[in-house]
Amino acid sequence: MQWLLTLESDRDPIVLCRLMNIFRRKGLEIETMALGAKPEVYSLMAVVDSPESEIDHIFNFLRGTDGVRGVSFYLHEPSKDATFIFVESSETSENLKRIQKAFPESKVIFASHGKYLVEVPSGASLETQAGMDAPAFLPFSRVKTSQQHRKMELVGAAS
Q1: Which helix (DSSP H) or strand (DSSP E) does residue 149 occupy?
Q2: Average pLDDT, the chain
């Protein structure tokens, strides 16, 4: 099952090494991943594949990992039910501009190296927007988030 994972961690490379080891041990297949940094924190976003039966276990395991400050995960959903869109774009951010034009109230949650997580208004549908069914647009719905992660804005997010 395809899902999207976002997390924040202490700005310590050892935490990143632990996370990569966890991904390997838990059998997560990383489709794409982006990392952003501030002086005190790293933000990581990844589209991954794993068995559906493992998602709850992985979420709880990650949020209990030393150095991880917050974890959220989002399940791939039909576009009519999505409230978040993962956008893969070139350096010119053409695809991001299309989302922002189609959904002026949208908010960029994460941005790094042409990969964006965008929150769109509830009830908005990609299906009604021409060209939004391309592989560069993956619709998701947030399923779980740790309490402290709700209040955090990931590194790289634009206001």
Answers
A1: helix 147-150
A2: 83
Domain-wise residue ranges, the chain: 2-77+141-150, 79-139
Place of tokens 């990992």: 65
Span 79-139: which CATH code? 3.30.70
Enumerate residue ranges in the chain where pLDDT < 70: 78-81, 90-92, 123-135, 147-159
Long-range CB pairs of 18-22 (<8 Å, 24+ gap) are: 18/65, 18/66, 18/67, 19/44, 19/62, 19/65, 19/68, 22/61, 22/62, 22/65
At position 96, the amino acid (one-letter code) is L
Specify the pTM.
Answer: 0.78
Cross-strand bridge partners of residue 110: 117
Q: Give the strand order in the sheet containing 2-10.
A: 29-37, 41-49, 2-10, 68-76, 137-145, 84-88, 115-119, 107-112
Q: What is the pLDDT of residues 60-71, one digit of tens each?
A: 999 999 999 999
